[in-house]
Write a structure and sequence with these properties.
single chain, 25% strand, 5-stranded mixed beta sheet, globular, Glutaredoxin, alpha/beta, 5 helices, 5 strands, 117 residues
Length: 117
Amino acid sequence: MATVTLTADNFDEVAQGDGIVLVDFWAEWCGPCKRFAPVFEKSAGKHDDIVFGKVDTEAQPELSERFGIASIPTLMAIRDGVIVFAEPGALPESVLENVIEQVRALDMEDVRRRAES
């Protein structure tokens, strides 16, 4: 599946649905972002059931501010509308695949229960 460009106009619609959404916060001038982009794209090609979205922090500063993005690239994982992971840094392919496995394995009822307490 190709990556989706996320903007302030479509972010909530994409992120609040069922399933997994991985979001790459990036900028054109960012060297580590450019190194992470092919890893993210490759993973998008392997996981048709996951939405892979990209937020250009220069074009969408309101989204960066909304989520407190202070360093890029930052990878955010959202499952069933709940942010379950957010970490800055260009992840190697093996680590990205591990994050995906962990997000898939989450017990979302338990995640919601913990978030409420």
